[in-house]
Amino acid sequence: MARNRRSPEPRTVPVAGGTAALVPDPDRPRAWTLTVDGAPQSHVDLDDPGHLDFPYQRRLGHLVDLAAPAGRPVTAVHLGGGALTLARYLAHTRPRSTQQVVEVDAALTSLVREELPWERGWRIKVRTGDAREALGKLPDGWADLVIADVFSGARTPAHLTTAEFLAAVRRVLAPGGVYAANLTDGGPLSFLRGQVATLRAAFAETALVAEPAVLRGKRFGNAVLYAADGPLPLSDLARRAATDPAAARLEHGRALADFAAGARVVTDADATSSPAPPPRTFG
């Protein structure tokens, strides 16, 4: 088991994306929150990799749980590494899974390796590089699961929001594979509506889960998208979202089409990064 390196105060380190901090969790003796320039990126409990603290991570975890029969190993690609919360979770819940993590910030990865090391026996490879470029180097049909959770300065980079990017995701997915993405938006939700329109044009089945206040544009927050060319476990995803401590709503089918009505498919020619969080979003 990884050793406890907790210090009385958060450790701050300059990384490519700004200033990273590891903040001890007062309620869990070997748990930490990773922030970059004050924006929460990951929460990791070294004693319990099955614990997902952030609501959006639990929503990603739901798809990890339901993507294949319980305990069956899968092949997964994580675009965006952070502290490897979802990779640790998947290794814990689906032993012998093969995972490729892509993180652009080498200094951030070094900090995580040093302070929050993961088990040597887990089949997790972390590569430094741009998420889309790394995706382009993977074989066709390699992954059962692709998870995109990439932020630069608290914004999803524009080149990871387009139809061309989703075409690369689809190429890497095996038949029956599933895709999930964590995004943020608020206000009129123009960015999120465009992402839904782009996803619906790329995949046969899609869904969106977020807290009601976010879906109404009343609060800036996370939204998780699910997609597959086969059936998604919509009933189970909806039930898990509704019974989560931070209850959320799943939209799909006609309701999701209505949500994205009038939004255009985003392409490389017109893409923009996700909107910046309003001041004081993270306290």
What's the structural blueprint in terms of helices and strands?
Elements: E1 11-15, E2 18-24, E3 31-36, E4 39-45, H1 55-66, E5 75-79, H2 85-93, E6 98-103, H3 106-115, E7 123-128, H4 131-136, E8 143-148, H5 163-172, E9 173-185, H6 190-202, E10 205-210, H7 212-215, E11 221-228, H8 234-243, E12 249-252, H9 253-259
Parallel strand pairs: 5-6, 5-8, 6-7, 8-9
Antiparallel strand pairs: 1-2, 2-3, 3-4, 9-11, 10-11, 10-12
Give a brief outline of the structure.
The protein is of the alpha/beta class and about 280 residues long.
How is this structure best described in words?
The chain is α/β, with parallel strands linked by helices. The protein has a single domain (54-259), classed as Vaccinia Virus protein VP39 (Rossmann fold, 3-Layer(aba) Sandwich), CATH 3.40.50. The chain has nine helices and twelve strands. The chain has helices at residues 55-66, 85-93, 106-115, 131-136, 163-172, 190-202, 212-215, 234-243, 253-259; strands at 11-15, 18-24, 31-36, 39-45, 75-79, 98-103, 123-128, 143-148, 173-185, 205-210, 221-228, 249-252. An eight-stranded mixed sheet has the order 7-6-5-8-9-11-10-12, sandwiched between helices. Strands 1-2-3-4 form a four-stranded antiparallel sheet, with helices on one face. Helix 1 (55-66) runs parallel beside helix 2 (85-93), helix 1 packs antiparallel against helix 8 (234-243) and helix 5 (163-172) packs across helix 6 (190-202). Mean pLDDT is 95; it is low at 1-6.
